[in-house]
């Protein structure tokens, strides 16, 4: 008896269906999607009589005239082929398995970074009730459209693109029907469907001037659902994901959003690490909107840009930055970044989990927005034209650390996180090779969900005037790589677009 290679560790039902198992414990999520009870997993040790290589050797000796079936190089499937374990499943099943594996992530307990981790189970229930429930129907079609599109783009399969478009049309009709009723509009299924429609738009690179066509709808649904959505884990996870979708409109180059986010300040818990960051982000967004509105007023600008107002704005911005810089104090110690020395020299920032790195990069973008707003108060063209230079000099003295220095530090920290975020190094800064990227490995494995969270911080670097040419090139290269790796066309469009096409939402 000899060892015949590593046996399949998937559950019995996934092995029988010949699809890839996600190996979740205690039960497989693919089984939940299929609507069946997971039968469990095989024993860790399996004894085989002989290897496939030994068996083929015996057959060859018995029939020497039989031609060789495959060369060694042909055993590896190319990007356009279907792996053997998926050969007997439908394209819809393959798309769902791929989508749930790549775009739904449940982090370790206590971290709360759930990238739609609830979606497989909710989809299974929605599929069963889609014929009698509008909200369930909207989620079912939205999931299937996004799943088909993600697989079609990643594996470059044109017929699947057409199929995804057809299902996307069904999803739009179902969502519109669900939104007509107040009772179904506030359901988790409806908000999740709109979130997925926004994701579908980004996978296919269909934003208009990088502004989402679903941003306003997401904001209105979040507000309509109110404080009640925070009482359950799924509601909190949905709010967090939808909030990040809305906030990307603040980071893109079409300007700051005009959403009224004051209601969020009343429902978010500042003592919770994740909700605390969302609350600070909301406050910075409102502050930046107020300053931009004041500085772009066409009439009575001299009455608005008084010394009293300018001083009050500057003091408010400085206080906000002080609180934002201390945000991590309310977060668990496991969220903190680690400064490690790279093998090629210099230093990198690593984290316990790639999802944690995503939130730190969002934090850095928000802090850049805040510092850029402070610069607008003292250095924008309208401020220099209307205000006395003595007043502007006094305002600059209120700011202890120059905003440009903080912006440069935030850009540098984001760039030092890129190698870890891409999965090129582990938490100790050691290079991750192909041989170490096994399912049981402790090294990070980048998924499409985490790649998607990285897009806007990278794009922000490209368009920031404080970024160096080397940093811009590093961000552009990473975006191009993410686009080709995961078939996210928005990433490819960002990498190809020139920084002059859009401007950072600052006035300076």
From TrEMBL:
Source organism of the structure: Byssochlamys spectabilis (Paecilomyces variotii)
UniProt protein name: Zn(II)2Cys6 transcription factor
Keywords: DNA-binding, Nucleus, Transcription, Transcription regulation
Source domain of life: Eukaryota
One term of GO molecular function: DNA-binding transcription factor activity, RNA polymerase II-specific
Chain ranges of the Zn(2)-C6 fungal-type domain: 10-38
Coiled coil keyword on record: no
InterPro entries per the UniProt record, alphabetical: DHMBA_Reg_Transcription_Factor, Zn2-C6_fun-type_DNA-bd_sf, Zn2Cys6_DnaBD
Gene3D superfamilies assigned to the protein according to its UniProt record, in alphabetical order: Zn(2)-C6 fungal-type DNA-binding domain
Region (Disordered): 55-81
CDD domains, A to Z: GAL4
């Amino acid at each position: 008896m000899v060892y015949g290679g590593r046996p399949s560790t998937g559950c019995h039902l996934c092995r029988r269906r010949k699809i890839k198992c996600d190996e979740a414990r205690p039960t497989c999520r693919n089984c939940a999607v299929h609507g069946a009870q997971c039968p469990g997993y095989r024993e860790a040790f399996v004894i085989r009589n002989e290897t496939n290589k030994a068996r083929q050797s015996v057959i060859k000796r018995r029939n020497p005239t039989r031609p060789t079936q495959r060369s060694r190089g042909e055993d590896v499937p190319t990007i356009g082929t279907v792996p053997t374990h998926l050969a007997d499943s439908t394209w819809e099943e393959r798309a769902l398995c791929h989508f749930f594996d790549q775009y739904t992530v449940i982090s370790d307990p206590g971290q709360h970074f759930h990238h739609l981790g609830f979606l497989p189970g909710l989809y299974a229930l929605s599929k069963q009730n889609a014929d009698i429930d509008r909200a369930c129907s909207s989620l079912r079609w939205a999931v299937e459209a996004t799943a088909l599109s993600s697989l079609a783009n990643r594996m470059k399969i044109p017929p699947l693109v057409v199929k995804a478009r057809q299902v996307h049309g069904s999803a739009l009709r179902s969502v519109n029907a669900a939104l007509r009723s107040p009772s179904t509009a506030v359901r988790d299924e409806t908000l999740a469907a709109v979130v997925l429609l926004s994701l579908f738009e980004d996978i296919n690179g269909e934003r208009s001037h990088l502004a989402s066509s679903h941003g306003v709808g997401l904001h209105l649904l979040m507000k309509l659902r109110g404080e009640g959505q925070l009482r359950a884990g799924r509601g909190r996870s949905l709010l967090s994901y939808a909030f990040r979708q809305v906030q990307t409109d603040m980071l893109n180059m079409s300007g700051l959003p005009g959403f009224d986010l004051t209601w969020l300040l009343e429902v978010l818990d500042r003592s919770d690490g994740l909700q605390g960051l969302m609350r600070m982000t909301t406050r910075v967004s409102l502050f930046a909107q107020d300053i931009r509105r004041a500085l772009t007023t066409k009439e009575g600008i001299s009455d608005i840009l008084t010394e009293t107002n300018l001083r009050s704005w500057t003091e408010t911005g400085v206080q906000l930055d002080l609180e934002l810089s201390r945000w991590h104090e309310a977060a668990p110690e496991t969220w903190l970044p680690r400064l490690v020395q790279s093998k090629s020299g210099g230093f990198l920032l690593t984290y316990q989990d790639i999802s944690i790195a995503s939130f730190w990069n969002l934090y850095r973008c928000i802090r850049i927005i805040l510092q850029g707003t402070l610069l607008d108060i003292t250095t924008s063209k309208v401020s220099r034209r209307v205000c006395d230079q003595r007043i502007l000099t006094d305002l600059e003295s209120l700011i202890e650390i120059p905003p440009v220095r903080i912006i440069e530090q935030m850009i540098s920290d984001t760039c030092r996180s890129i190698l870890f975020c891409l999965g090129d190094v582990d938490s100790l800064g050691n290079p991750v090779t192909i041989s170490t990227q096994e399912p049981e490995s402790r090294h990070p494995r980048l998924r499409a969900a985490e790649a998607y969270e990285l897009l806007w911080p990278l794009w922000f670097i490209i368009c920031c005037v404080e970024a160096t040419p080397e940093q811009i090139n590093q961000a552009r290269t990473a975006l191009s790589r993410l686009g080709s790796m995961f078939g996210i066309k928005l990433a490819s469009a960002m990498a190809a677009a020139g920084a002059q096409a859009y401007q950072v939402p600052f006035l300076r």
